[in-house]
Design goal:
The structure holds two protein chains of two kinds. In chain A, a hairpin with a 2-residue loop joins strand 4 and strand 5. Chain A is built from eight helices and ten strands. By secondary structure, chain A is of the alpha/beta class. In chain A, the strands form two sheets. Chain A has a six-stranded mixed β-sheet with strand order 6-7-8-3-9-10, with helices on both faces. In chain A, strands 2-1-4-5 form a four-stranded antiparallel β-sheet, covered by helices on one side. Chain B is mainly alpha-helical. Chain B is globular, with a radius of gyration of 20 Å. Classes of the chains: A alpha/beta, B mainly alpha. At the A-B interface, helix 1 and helix 2 of A face helix 1 and helix 4 of B.
Chain lengths: ~250, ~260
């Protein structure tokens, strides 16, 4: 099976500022995400999830080890030709409309005018923003902005989607729609790597998960296998792995 | 190149949708019309003096547009975090720098055309003569000058985190170059070593933006600089643009960006 994402002994160390010591954000992390699977990347805050995603997206350079997307080193921009990325919070040019922002990203991917038109129309329909397509993004609600984010992540019809807490801050209906979308993309054969703190959601949509803590990989495997192995749900496995001790009643 | 043009287009669109340009244009236009309508006993030198003031206003407005538009580009991308979805696409940091530069330079060019078109119409209506070629040369040289400044400010924006400090420092540097830059080599002759050498080095290192300032020729109806001089000055400007852009890229490509 093709490895879409491949991390080998990845190490990221942030240099300390002034008298502060250097911080080891990711330590010797190795994992692989296979083609066509939904992979949940879990861990408490500060565990190194976002840093790992930042390395994959080329925002941060690894101190050691290697990271590959579709077999190409992530430092090569061509590695990002087949991926879509949805950040945790929506970061878009507020002076543009949804349609303009999609057109901008379509230009970056070198789509022709007719391809762009078709793709933009389909995506706006998919994320239910056709009516609001010509309104500036600054007038959108958070849920609508998140949907623009999803549309821009899909503009190049990517084979791999990297979603950083895609349902963060959304209402239950918004979450359900994102879940449905992930399921639909999975059915289309897309590979999805996503981080989330919603463990119920992860258990529902993910094929495999990895749990990281303090920059190190603690557990990796199929959700069903882990549940069977630990004899409990994913939330309890997560708490156990990160060393959470419930307060004992005296 | 798709990415570079797409980013450049975005910068132009941003300038089009912001109010800065319109406010400066209306101010310049109002002052130009006001000053252009004044006539003191039909004295010719007064008309020239007024043209000089109008061109100075255009020069100041274009400088403000160039510096403020460029200074906020990269810091705003980082502050609003729009840089992350952008760099998650197959876009290199060099392309981001090139796109931002091209966009700001084009935006300045469009603003210049509007300003000079207005000035030409106003001055032609008073003098009943079209100084088309001298005006085109002045616009071209002005645009080259703004290219150097845009590249310099873009470099400043990867060095200084806050756009306000970058804007202030760049304005001081530009005013310094215009005010004392041209005299540095003469001042150096009167200084003891090593101050003399240091001043000479600074004189040869700084971009001499005053070489691009042609409104004096326009105002005094002098035979404007020959094409060969314009070409040489343009090459000089392109060399400085390239140097500033390479420096900006060298600095930006290694900067760590954390979400």
């Amino acid at each position: 099976m093709e490895n879409v994402v491949q991390l080998k002994n990845l190490r990221v160390e942030y240099r300390g500022r002034g008298s502060q010591p250097a911080k080891l954000a990711v330590n010797n992390l190795s994992l692989a995400v296979h083609a066509g699977e939904v992979f949940g990347f879990l861990g408490p805050n500060g565990a190194g999830k976002t840093t790992t995603m930042n390395v994959l997206l080329g925002f941060v350079n690894a101190t050691g080890g290697e990271a590959r997307l579709f077999g190409v080193n992530v430092r090569d921009p061509i590695a990002r030709q087949r991926i879509g990325y949805l950040p945790e919070l929506t970061y878009y040019y507020k002076f543009l409309t949804a349609e303009e922002i999609l057109r901008f990203y379509a230009k970056i991917f070198g789509l022709t005018q007719s391809e762009s038109n078709k793709r933009i129309e389909a995506l706006l329909k998919l994320v239910e923003l056709t009516e609001a397509a010509k309104r500036p993004i600054k007038s959108y609600s958070k849920g609508m902005q998140q949907r623009v984010g999803l549309a821009q992540a899909l503009i190049n019809n990517p084979d791999l989607l990297i979603l950083d807490e895609p349902t963060s801050g959304l209402d239950p209906l918004g979450r359900m729609k994102v879940r449905q979308l992930i399921q639909r993309l999975k059915n289309e054969g897309k590979t999805i790597l996503f981080s989330s703190h919603e463990l119920g959601e992860v258990e529902t949509v993910c094929d495999r998960v990895a749990i990281v803590d303090k920059g190190e990989l603690k557990v990796e495997g199929r959700v069903t296998d882990l549940v069977a192995q630990y004899q409990c749900d994913l939330e309890k496995i997560f708490l156990n792995v990160v060393g959470y001790q419930p307060e004992s009643r005296s | 190149m798709n990415s570079v043009f797409a980013i450049a287009g975005l910068v132009v669109k941003e300038l089009q949708r912001r109010k800065d340009f319109y406010v400066l244009f209306v101010l310049t236009a109002l002052l130009t019309v006001l000053l252009g309508s004044v006539s003191f006993f039909n004295a010719e030198n007064i008309a020239r003096y007024l043209k000089d003031i109008c061109l100075l206003l255009i020069w100041v407005s274009s400088l403000v547009i160039a510096v403020t538009t460029t200074a906020r580009q990269l810091p705003a991308e980082r502050e609003n975090r729009t840089i992350f979805p952008l760099l998650a696409k197959p876009v290199t940091r060099g392309q981001v720098i090139a796109g931002k530069f091209l966009g700001c330079w084009l935006a300045c060019g469009i603003a210049l055309l509007v300003f000079y078109l207005f000035f030409t119409v106003i001055s032609a209506s008073r003098e009943h003569v079209w100084h088309l070629v001298p005006t085109l040369k002045a616009v071209w040289m002005h645009w080259m000058l703004l290219g150097v400044l845009v590249a310099m400010v873009l470099f400043g924006s990867v060095v200084f985190t806050a756009p306000s400090s970058n804007t202030t420092i760049c304005f001081i540097v530009i005013v310094g170059i215009l005010g004392i830059g041209r005299h540095l080599h003469r001042v150096a002759l009167d200084q003891p070593e090593p101050v003399s050498t240091m001043l000479s080095v600074i004189y040869f290192l700084i971009p001499h933006v005053e070489w691009f300032y042609l409104p004096d020729f326009l105002v005094n109806d002098q035979n404007i600089a020959p094409w060969t001089d314009c070409l040489m000055a343009s090459l000089y400007g392109v060399a400085y643009m390239a140097a500033f852009l390479i420096a900006a890229w060298m600095r930006f490509r290694r900067q760590m960006l954390s979400v």
